[in-house]
Structures are given as structure tokens and as C-alpha cells.
Fold these 3 entries.
Entry 1:
Amino acid sequence: MGMRDAFLSTMEQVLDEDPRVAVVLADISAASLEAARRRHPDRVINVGIREQALIGVAGGLALTGMRPVVHTFPSFLVERPYEQVKLDLTHQGAGAVLVSWGGSYDMPTAGRTHQSPADVALIDAIPGWTVHVPGHPDEAVSLLREALPGDGTVYLRLSGQSNARPRPGPGMQVVRQGGRGVVLAVGPMLDRVLAAAEDMDVTVLYAKTVRPFDAETLRAAVAGTGVADVVLVEPYLAGTSAHQVSEALVEVPHRLRALGTSRDAEVRRYGEVTDHDLAHALDEASIAAALKAFLRPD
Amino acid sequence: MENTTRGLGYADLPALIDAMRGDEKHSGAAESTVDVLWVLYDRVLNVSPEAPDDPARDRFLLSKGHGPMAYYAVLAAKGFLDPAELAGWAGSESRLGYHPDRTLVPGVEISSGSLGHGLALGVGMVFGLRAQGLTEPKVVVLTGDAELDEGSNHEAIALAGRASMAQLTTVVVDNQSATHGWPGGIAERFAVEGWATRTVDGRDHDALHAAFTTPHPDRPLCVVAVVEPKGS
């Protein structure tokens, strides 16, 4: 079961368990939650293809004490109603859990309109958001369940790409220790980073939560490695977390290489996800080459 | 209901508005809403400064956040604000800005200023109240006729109509300031989406009161409050 199905089946259960939770949809995934809507007609709300109302309605729900979970593709969840995200949630002091599925290019045959590599950077430009980028469906479910009892603004970015196994637990995790530098893999990037760095003497960190950013673990890893060379591998816009790395290491002279989706041009290509991995140099071989070029020899 | 706690009435509003001095850029917008606001707070809304967070209270959403002088004046007259606070408005030490902020001002339900947000927020509030079994509280959203230019409103108008939101009222203060106008009239835009509508003189308190309190079962209500054209 992928992250999207895991999310939807979890929401079915949550709606039965927690009367405070309401799901707000804009047609996407509405058919999957139709049985839940029949059981809870007041708490499964499909606004139709109205993405500004999608966020506005969520803000209104929160202002009456409900916990809205809002779901659609990231282009339509974050980019189209961006001012609603800024004003109808954060500026009102209203919480919500925004759950996207589709990542940067999980629907490659749909083209640029369905690519949203800037979603995390955009959310990051509004104060106070927690941002989760799970690397496995089990992680997606536990992050969702942890987010629901609260009142804050949470962005949960689900993807069709995932790692082979989940890594439970909070914060940044040390997956491997090494001596030539630190590679931070975010969410679904971990398995390919581990494969790319298989023969390299590097520390590999894993993060499924990028905001708040676990600066303490990064600093400790850099100190433990002894070489302040950091490579950031994110499944969205390259450098989205670069400012967080700079801030974490402000006292340490360091070098940073930020990998992610290209900022240079729109990728006007269909094909497979793997074609887009290649176009953005996020495939295993490209990551290996980038590590080799950046990290200093022993 | 009469809930004036400080003994201030409609006749005091001009003096309260005058207390807000400075570089007011939205005075026309402020004047257009004063009668609607007064009738709502004096005779229609179940709200009280003693219980501003009562889950069963009515909600008033000033979507058209521009020109909140009349709004602050009414809130002061009704005891949500100390009238002495009005004098410092829009200063760096004041809670009262050119656009109201719900996190700063007692009795203010939404932070507004950017046009086209209040209606969807109001629709979400009705969904939230319904889901908690609170079917009595009214949600009243005030917009301007030019504000309806924002497409976001039309998403909310259609949604509220289809969801049979009898708890929702939109009052459109029409000072004929929309750049391209609304052929057929504003009320018609709501009526085709299933709303009950009333178009009244926005200066006539009894007509406004009657419009706000006429039963409209299973439908949201749109009250178009016509005032003199902007700049006239």
C-alpha cells in the first residue's frame, strides 16, 4: 500500500474515532472517502474543484474548534490558494493539517501542471509550519496520527516514491557514521543516498521532518565526523533547507552542496518518474557523482 | 437584543468615529457600513463582550476589512473596546489597525483586509458549527459589492447554496463601486445559487432588521444593503 492509500484508510478510521476531525477535499480522492462521508456527512466535506474555498473552509472549521485535514495534489493545495494558506490559516491563528500527494513529479505523464517542486519552499516562507516528508507509508501514518491531536499548522507531503522500510522515531536519525562529511537525506531520498554512498566513508543522516529543522543532530553529526562538509539531498527544490543548514552551522566554517529538483528551467517532459530523477540528477548514479565531486578525498 | 453595556447608542457613533484621527484612507468605506453594523450589533447578533468565546454565540465576519472605523466604533459602543482606545488607532502601540486583526481586537472574529476571504471562512464556520450540533448560531459575513469581483467569493457562494446553509447570511454593502458592475443586480448572483435574497435601503434600520430576521429555511440569506454610490 502506498502513502496515499495508507493516508486515506487511516482517515477512515480517524473519522470514526475523533469527532473533532473533519476532512476537506476538492474532488481529488473524494470517491475513496465516500463510505466515510456517508457515515460522517458533516465531517467529510467535498467543496468541488474550488481550491481557494478548500483552504478558506478549513480555516473556518478550525475557528470553531474542529481539526481540519485538507487533501489534494500539492499544486492545488499550496500553490493555487497560497494566499489562503497564509491568511485563512496562519494569519487567523487557525490550525490545519494539509496533506498532499504527488510530490515533485509523481504524475510524470501529467506534465508541468501537476509538478510542485516548490511546495515546501513556499510553506517555509510562512511562519510556524511543521513540515513532514515521510519516506515510507508507515511513517506517513504515524506522522499523521501525531499531528491530529494538536492545533498547529502541519504540512504532510506524501509521495509515490518511498524507501524499502520505515524508520520510526522522531528527529533526524544517524543511519551511518563516516569521516569524509555528512549527507542528509530527506524522506524518499534515503535509499538511493545509501546506495550512492555505499563505498564512501560518510555519515548519512535521515530526516522525515524538516520543519522544525533538527539543527542539534546535524551539528553533532558534523562534530562527530570532524569534516564540516554537508550534502543536502531533498526531493523538492534544490536548497530548500540550505538556510537551515547555514543557521545550524553558523559557528562552524563549512561547505554545503544542496541537491534537489532543478531551479534552472521547467522540465517539460512526460515519461516515467525515473526519467525525471535523471533530469534533476536525483538518481543514484548522479547523486554518487555529486558526492564524489564535492567531498574531499581521505 | 439590547446588549449595549456602556449606554452608548447610534447617536454616539459619529463622535466615536471622529475619535479615530490620522491618515484615514478608507473613510468612504467606513461610512457605507455604519448602519448595517449598528443594526446587526444592536438588534440581530447574539454576541456579548462578557462571553466573547461562547461556542453558541453568533459570528460576525467583516470580510471587507477596509475602513474599519465604523466597526471599531460599534465595538466600542457595545463594550468590546474601551472608547478611549480609539484615539490611538493605527499607531504603533494600538491594537486597532486600518485592517482588523482577530488576534489583537476583542470581539473580532476574523483578520481581514485582503478581499475575498470572509465568505469561505464563514462557510467553514457553518460546517464546523453543524458538525458540533450547534445549529442555532448565525454566521453573518459583510462584503462589499466590489469585493465580489474576487473569484474566491463565487466558490463560496455556490458551495453555501448547495450545502443549504440556513445559518449563513451574507450582507453585501452595495455602494456601486465594482469596476464592471453586476448586470441583473447583485441579489440575482446569489439567487441562482439557491440563496434567499433581500435588497433593502442600507440606511433604513427597520428595513435592514426585517431583512436580517425574515425566515429563510434551508437556504443561506443574502441581504443587499444599497447605500449611496461611492464618492457621491
Note: Chain A has a mean pLDDT of 97.
Entry 2:
Amino acid sequence: MVIGLLIPFVEITLAGAIINASVHFVPVGGAPAAMATSTGIGTGTTQLAAGAGFTGLMAAATMAAQNGIDIFNPLHWIIILLSGAVGSMIMLGLTMLIGQLIYVFGVGVVPAADKCERDPITGDYQKSYITPGTTGHAIPTVCFISGLIGAALGGIGGALAYVALKQLGFSSEVAGIMAVGFFFMNAVLASYNIGGTIEGFHDPKFKKIPNGIVASFVASLLTGIIVVVMSLGI
Amino acid sequence: MSHGGGGHAAELYPENQILAIGTILAIMGMYISQFFPQVSMLLGGLLASAAIVAGANTTRKVAAYGLGTGVPSIGMLSLGMGIISSVAGIYLVNTVVKILGAGSELLYIIPIVVIVISVVLGYIVGRLTVKPIGMKIPVMVESMTKLSLMGALSIIGFCTAYAGGFLPNIIIPGSIENGVMALAFIAAGMGILHPFNACLGPNESHKRTLTLAVACGFLTWFIFSVARLDVVSSIASIVLWAVVYKEFIKQSLKDACCVYYTPEIPKREM
């Protein structure tokens, strides 16, 4: 009985920390990126994280609802988490790809990162391609890879929260809506930690990640306690 | 005059006054829906709109400092905490009744329990945004507490109005398991975050933002009335919305510096 409650409790606490970490990877450019004067996707952190997280959550929920899937079986548990990660990666990958097509062929800019001399992955020089007065354009390789890592983590975090709630015995509807609320809480905490725009793991702001993880860990611990006590009344 | 950390426009009513009125009206609405289910949408929905107005007013107060991530984020945070508190309130009281064998009269304190949980959750999340995250907004903790409270009240208010009561055996099948709560999440969220997001700028006025907040509250009520197929409240809410929204447009035109209807540029030089 105690173990049965403890595992979901640990899962939901970790889920919050993972969701928070995931948001730091997503290249967010906000309004400047929408005008192609900064690197990243042209919208806010919360919206992007929510989009990727929800798709992951849907993918995980669909997988969990398949016949023969048992959420208590460790192998099936991993499959659910992975399907969440893949769902989320597809969503964010497509968003970045279409955004990139518009940046390159519509706006006519060269993808270039401002926060590093050379792209850490391709090794290409960045500075000479940046228009003066801007902080980069579009989504360079490093940002794209960073975004995919972030999406995978976000999907795993969302799926973990959903699975934990299911393991506590909530019906799918309650688990889904609680996971959505939980996801938003942690995603916004992360976006306050970032404070506006971030390019990805090579951005200097990425070093603030421990603050965000600690904050989400504490908030999720509290949510975990509430949720476990709630589950006794089903 | 409130834009991006540039101080605040004059307040028409003190924030706490709007907050208190919003809380009291929303609680009244929930009890009316519980005891008179036949008018739950008409009165419960109308009174739940008050929580949206109070939430939008608090959003205005805190977002005027400049959050750095846009106004929508705080509305979503408010609703995220609100949805956890409202579902938790329903199930926690159920736990006490089932496990400790308390009388089922205890179930009538659900709205109060929701308020307590949302205030505690909001306060702790507010503290976390100040330390370790380091938001430098002086009213952050109290605003987070208030927003969490208003998010919870608007969600459970509309869900109660839809289901016709807040007892677990009514609200769980009536509002949660059929997914109406997701509608409450996004519709009430829009109502809380939209008014200030739409009105912010160098000439923001409290009166105009509040008018739009009232319009958003009525529009949310209208959405729920239609979802419930309640003809009387659908008509009442859309009429009220039209009246308030017309007033909002009038104010916007009045506050605009000048409205010119420029003619077309002539095709060739005269």
C-alpha cells in the first residue's frame, strides 16, 4: 500500500523537475524572432512548452489506452514514456521546420546564432552572418537539436505525470486534466526563470537551470502530497 | 500609464475590494447552484463571472510590472494552480468522508477547502518565483496567491454551474469526467489573461480594462450556457455581453487620441 503510493509520488515530483528542465532547451525568440531579428521560434515559452507537452501527453495517453498495456509493468511504462517523448518531438520538430522554411524562403534570412562564435554542432562561424542590430535569425542547427532534446524531455515529463496519476487510480479524464494543470504550472515557473528569450543549451541563460529545477521540485513535491492524499478518496 | 514596469494607471477601485467582491459572489454562486440546480446556469454562471473579473484585475496589477514572458503566461499559471486546487478540493473532502467516516454534511465545505488549497498552493508557488527563481516584482507573492484563488474559483464556479452542484457525486460525472473542466480551463483562462493583454499600452485605463473583463466574464458564461443548451441563460448572457462590449468599444474610441477616416490617396497628382 505504502509502496503503491510512494512510487507515483516520486514519479510526479520528478516529472515536475523534468518538465521545468525541458523548457530551458526549447529555443524561444518571442516577438523579436517573429520579426526575424532574434534566434528561435517566434512565440512565448509557455505556449511552445504547452504545445509540445500536450502532444506528448496525448501520445502517452493514447499509448496507455491501448489493449494489453499495463501501466504497472515496467516495460510498458517505458513504452508509454517513449511514446510521449516521440509525440512531443514530432510536434516541436515540425514547428521548427515550418518556421525555418518561412524564415529562409519567406523572410530571406540566414539561420545564425548570436550567443556563440561557432555553432557547437556544425562548427560553422556565426557572427559574420548576423545582420547588425539584431541578435541572430531563424533556427540554426544547435537550436534545432536543443529544441528536439527539450521536446523529448517535455514529453517524458508530461507522460510521467499522467502515468503517476493513473497509477494512483484516477480515471483517464481526471488524470489528463490534472496533468495539464501540472504541466502549465511547471512550464510557467521555467519561463519565469528564463525571463523572455533563450537559444538553447549554449545560451548563457541556460546556466540558471538549477534554480528552475529546484523551484519545480518543491512545487511538485507539494502537488505530489496533495495528489496522493486525494487518491485515497476515490 | 502602465506599460512594461512604468508604474500604474490610477485605480478606479482598490484591488482588494474587487477581489473580496469576486470571492464572495463566486462562493454565493456555487451554493446557489448546489441548492437550486434549476437556476444553476443562470445565477451560478453569472456569479462565477465575478471571479474572472477579479482575476483579470489582479493580472493587470502584476503584469503591469513587465513579466518578461508576456501576460498570457500568468493567466495559464493561475489556471494551472486553479485546476489542481479545484480537483484536489473535491477529492480531499471525499477522502475525509470515506476514510475517517465523517458525516456526509462535511461535503458542503468543498468550496471552502478549494479556497484554502488554492491560497496555500499560490502562496508557495509565489515564494518560489521570488526565491530561487528571482522575479523582481514586489507584489509577486500576494498576486500569485490571489491569481491561484481566482483561477480555482472560476474553474469550480463554472463547473458547478454546469453540473448543478459541487457534491462529488454530481460534479465528477457532471463536469470532470465529460471533459467540461478542460473547457473551463481554457475559457476562464482566456477571460483572466485577455483583458489586460488587449488593453495594455501607454494609455491603459482601469475602467476600460475592467469593462473588457466583465465582457469576457459574460462571454465565458455564454459559452457554458450554450454547452449546457440552456436557452434562458444563453440569451441573458449574450445580451449582457453585447451591452458591455458596446460600452467597451465606445470607451476605446473615446480614449483613442483621434480617429481619422483617411480618404484614399489620389491616383494621380491634382
Note: The two ends of chain A are 15 Å apart (CA to CA).
Entry 3:
Amino acid sequence: MTSLFGITWDVQWHDDVGPDTFFTLSHLMLYSGSAIAGVVALTMVLRATVAQRAGRPVDPKEGGRTVRVLAFDAPVGYLVVGTGAAMFLLYGTMDLWWHGVYGFDAILGSPPHMALFSSITTTMVGSIIVFGYAHAERWGRIGLALSLPSLMTFSPLMFEAFEDAPLPFKGNIIMNAAVCALCLVLAVGIVGRPVFAVVVAGALAAVHVVLWFWAPWAAHAYAELSGLPVRDGVGSEPPSLPARIPMLLLIVALLVAGVLSRVRRWAPPIAGAATGVVTAVMLDLQAPLINDGPMVPPGILIGDGLTGLLLGAAAGYVAWRFAAMVRGERREPNPIGRTAVGPTVLGGTA
Amino acid sequence: MMPIRRKIAAAVAAGALVLLPAAPALAYEPVNVVHTEHVQAGPYEVTVGFSEWPLRAMQSMDVSFIPDGGIGGKSGTLHVTGPTRLHPNLANSTLARHPRKLDVWGLDVIALDRQGEYTFEFRIDGPQGLGEGQTRPVEVLSQPGPPLALSWAVCAIPLVGLLAFLVIAWRRHSVGRTPLHPPV
């Protein structure tokens, strides 16, 4: 969440104000997200290791099943969170070198930035695993309702590099749609209640509204604090990063909840496909509407819709199985022939 | 199971540990001009100042546009053409003050992605009427640093790693399989 607010602020700053150093407040906020996650993950891995050494079993609800890594016993969720944070630090140094060669950030989609974004995404995936294992607890469900929207908003940044790729579809749009499909189906699969898709979409809408108003305010207030003027001709455009968050996902979530409330084998891919196609087309139409830009050519719209449909279906299928993992894993080996516990809405395994 | 109060306390402590030693220091680079080109746009002479020379692809730079007699009472548009289609913000923009040098027009922190020849075309409106003109073709050399493919390969590791982890998790999660490491 901290990383998400940091990047939104930073992008708005670059757009509206301009001057940049390594030590702007928005950068600090962005780094802090990974730093806090890294410290928490390290603490939890050490706690689990000490507990295992002392012969106390670790509850899988505390970040998932433990995995032996070197001399440590790491709960799998915290292992992923920590790995993402460590990679962020590593690629931060590479980014520093990159700026030495190329100068300040002229583009968002540079290779080290992509590595940094995918490191943050890894941390977010880890936090979803952590909260997923704790889905029976209230804090786990609250965490899921915050971490899934964070992933939906943040992960498309990784695909910024594909924005202008000469493809029959827009890479960043369809990946965004696929991530939305993945997250909504995961939400239902992990918690086992169709209405949780609506909860997650509602949380995304709330985050969206907050970011929309907060980003320009933070950029401009910080400019005033630093005694810097806002760029000429700024003010009429919508905030740049929040403008890319899919709107009206609540409606899609209702559709997902409806599809997944029926006990059918094909429900997850169908819910994913529906999310993929609707979100891809919605993102295509939303950009020109709020930016007064040119309409997307019909060919691209159809390409995005179809690719979104296919990727969404795959995302729905994958999400259901991952949800079963998070719900069904136990520290004891499953006896042969007994099925793992899958998302209950299907009445058995996923 | 850790109580929620302790979880929150741990998160707050981690945040404080990170943020307290950090005091943001703001010191912005001055806008340097190491090379100039001159353009006659009708009645207006414009000096185009580059902060880097020679220019290299992908390297960020500041460009200043300094009309004779200052920018007061004048307005205009800039049209940049190059070997490839440029970002719309660069291809056609309204001349705006440079954010770090407010007495001139300019572009801050821009990069020209491809090697080749670029021209900067001006259309200026002011007290002496409309004027148009463009720079002679400005040469941009090849990009510095390692080959782009190598940079992308190194920077794809986190994403590939994340996908590999998910694939491994998927494969290990089959019914009746023992966990990754036997219970203690």
C-alpha cells in the first residue's frame, strides 16, 4: 500500500512539477514500502526458525507452510515477501548505476524500473499468500481486501514497456485485465464466499477514489513546500496513474460472484474470461473518455477484448487452483487417496 | 498465533526504523547549456541550448529554448521530428517554461530513444506577429551503456523468478503429495 501511494505520487510529480532527485519524499515512500515489508518478513522468518529449532510447530496460518532455505525455516508467504524486498534493494543499486549512465528518469519503462516494479509485485504476491493462509481470521480477510487491490493497481506498471509494442492488442491493457480476473477469482476461491469478490472490487474503488484526489494534491503540496512551481499548462488532465485503474469493476465483481456461486467445474475460467473481456474493453474506452484523447481503433478494441477473454479464462483457472493451495495445504502429508480441501464453493477440490 | 496488537506494533516499529534516519535532501541540478543551435523563426531568433553534447540515444537531457528578448509576451508550439514516431508530448507541444529555469522555455529530462537525425520546429506568436523556423538536423548517436537486450535479460530475473516460483508451487501441489519438507 505504501509502495502504491509512493509510485502514484512520484508519477504525478514527474508529470506536474518535474525536478527530481534520489531523495524526494515520494521516492522515500516508494522505498519504504519494500523496506517495511523486508523487515517484517525477516522478523517472521527468524521467529519461525527459532520456533522450529525449539521444537514448537509453526502454525501455517502464520504465513503458510515452512520451507527450508539454507539454515532457515521460512513460512512460504514471508519468504516470497522477503525475496521481493531483497530484489528491490539489489535492483535499486542497479537503477542508481543506470541513472549514472543515462541521467534522470526520462521514461517509466526502463529495464531497472521494470525489475523494481516486478520486485514490488513479488512482495505483493507474498503478502496475498500470507493473508490468504490467514483467511479464517479477520485480519487475514482485511489484508486480502487491501493487498488484492494493491496488486491490481500496481502490477500493470511492469507491462508499461509493452505499451507501444507493435501487437494487435495492447499488452499493458490485457495484462491489467488478466490481473483483475486473477485477483477477483482468488478472492472468492480463498475466502470461499462469492461476495468477497464484491468486497475486493469495493476496496479497489475506494483506493481509486483516494488516489485520484490524493495524487495531484500531494504533488502540488510538495511542490509548494519545496518552493517549486507547477509546470505550465497543468491542471486540466486527470491524475495519470489513477486514470489507468479500471473503473466500474464492482459490476464485473457482481458478475464473478454470480458465476462462482453456482457449483460448476467451469465456473472459475468463465468468471475469469468475463472479467478479462469486460475489463480490457473498459480500460480501452475509459482512457479516451477521461483524457479526451483519440478513440481506440476498432481493430485494437476487438484484439484486446479477445485476448482479455482468453487470458482472463486462464487467470481464472489458475487462480482457483492457487486458492485451493492456500486453503488446502497442511503441514502433515495428505494420506494417499484423500483429496486436498479445495475452495468450498465447488463442494470439493478445485 | 501473534495477537493483532503485536502485529501492528511490529509494523509501526519497522516503519519507524526505515523512515526516521531519512531526511529528504532536495538539491536540484542546474540547467546547463553545453551546446547551442540557432533558429530564425520569422522575426524571432531562438537559441536552442542542450545540456548534453554530443547527444546519445536514451540519455536524458534538458533542452532550453531562449528567444531573443525573453519569453514575455510570446507563445508558441514545438514540433519534434525524428527517425521514429515520437511520444505525442514531444511530437507536438506548447512551449512551456522550463521547470528548473523559469525565465526560458524548455523541456526537462527528455530522452530521444533512437539513433538518427532530429529537427526541432518552432511556431512562435508575439509582438512582431507569427514566425516559423526549424533547427538544422541534430545528430543523435547510439545509446551508451550495455546492449539493451542484456539489460532487459538481467532485469527480467525478478519476473521470471516469480513465475518460476508459481510454476513450482503449482506442480508441487498435487493431491496426496508430501509437503516440501517433512514436519518436524
Note: Chain B touches chain A through 61 residues (CB under 8 Å).
